Amino acid sequence: MSADLRLKTILSLDEIAAADWDRCAQWAGPGMSGDGAVAVDPANPFISHAFLLALEQSGSTGGRSGWTSSHLVAEDAGGRVVGVAPAYLKSHSQGEYVFDHSWADAFQRAGGRYYPKLQITAPFTPAAGRRLLAAPGERALEVETALREGLLALRDQMRASSAHVTFQSEPEWHRMDPAHWLQRLDVQYHWFNRGYGRYDDFLATLASRKRKGLKKERREALAPGITVEALTGSALTEAVWDDFFAFYMDTGSRKWGRPYLTRSFFSLIGQSMPERIVLMMAKRDGRYIAGAINFLGADALYGRHWGCREDHPFLHFEVCYHQAIDHAIAHGLSRVEAGAQGDHKVARGYQPILTRSSHAIAHPGFRRAVADFLDHERPQIMAICENMRADLPFAARDQQEPD
User: Fold this and answer.
1) What pLDDT, in 10s, does the model give residues 169-200?
2) Is residue 344 part of a domain?
3) Of 22, 204, 207, 320, which one has the fewest beta carbons inside 10 Å?
4) Domain count of the fold of the chain
């Protein structure tokens, strides 16, 4: 690490100016020398100061949540912030979407202590992006290296078993030092806009049977007199948030027992970043019955949470997937990222995409065991991705990701 770079930890986003944090976060970052730059969203909403601060202020992180903020900040000799990393000391493995429960169980059965661990991520958010957030400039790679080394030091200082950088951008993942960081792959689903002028243009690329199936699915979803509204900006009223939060709580309680986000979180983001939110709300007989929240990046729509108070066939698919495609086409966005899990998305034109994470295990023996696990898991993940690509519904079997 350069002598004129200083690293420190902060326990809240309140301790750093939003402009300083976002100068580091809201940039595509350095590319990969030799392999070409990979597109990274320079306006990724989930690493913004507003989003992360709302998590803290709402109690979604901090307190008894098991997510203790320990953000890393790099400053130059003049005290100017040149890099940050959203980091959390964790007492569990919930809300991460990169599953290490089996690692924790194995280590603890062997007499080890897996928690606390250090998690470098956007909480509750399986959307890839930069995690070692160097500010733009000639020293970006140097600052990124300092942050990477600083996370190892922070792990040891906090007596954590491990450090985990999850849902990394591909360029950043390739630059992780293999002497310290084990690398992992997983799969999620993205829809790509090939310059479609309307939804029917997208349907025209599908095999006939798939095209007819999706048309029928959309008709049946809206048949009970349901309409869908896309709400953003000033339309995100407290009454709308009350309805959506009820939907979110219903789904969260059934899926994982205790939903992660508090009611006040939605009010806070509605105030601090309303233009970066698109809330798809389904209405029947004058009242909202279901909804899905999406976030806007520079060129992407990120689907996140869904819920409902009435069950109707195919309504989940309509509100979460088809409406997102409609919105992306209408606004010229390049892709929709539909989040983790759910191979049912493939039948609706969402393509399997590899996601990436890095893991620094402190205990040498445990590190070897995890490395062996990953050596066996990695080809399985690659095979799953390729098999899903073979099942894509397109008539022209071009399964390549866009350039």
Assistant:
1) 999 999 999 999 999 999 999 999 999 999 99
2) no
3) 204
4) 2
- Name the residue among 352, 174, 341, 182 with its Cα closest to residue 255: 341
- CA angle in degrees (0–180, nearest 5) for 156-161-162: 85
Structure tokens of 197? Answer: 């002028």
- Domain hosting 101: range is 6-187+354-390
149 and 274 together in one domain? no
Amino acid at 137: G
Radius of gyration of the chain (CA): 21
Polymer length in residues for the chain: 403
Query: Residue with structure tokens 């293999």?
Result: 178
How far is the CA of 308 from the CAs of 245, 260, 354, in angstroms?
10, 17, 30
Cα(16)–Cα(212) distance, integer angstroms: 53
* pTM check: above 0.85: yes
The verdict on 212 and 306 lying in the same domain is: yes
* Edge-to-edge order in the sheet of strand 335-340: 67-69, 87-90, 117-120, 162-168, 351-361, 182-192, 335-340, 300-308, 287-296, 277-284, 227-231
Which pLDDT does position 37 carry in this prediction?
38
pLDDT at 256: 56
Q: Confirm if 270 and 241 have CB atoms less than 8 A apart.
A: yes
Instruction: For residue 1, give the nearest of 109, 106, 147 by alpha carbon.
Output: 147
CA proximity to 305, closest of 374, 252, 373: 252
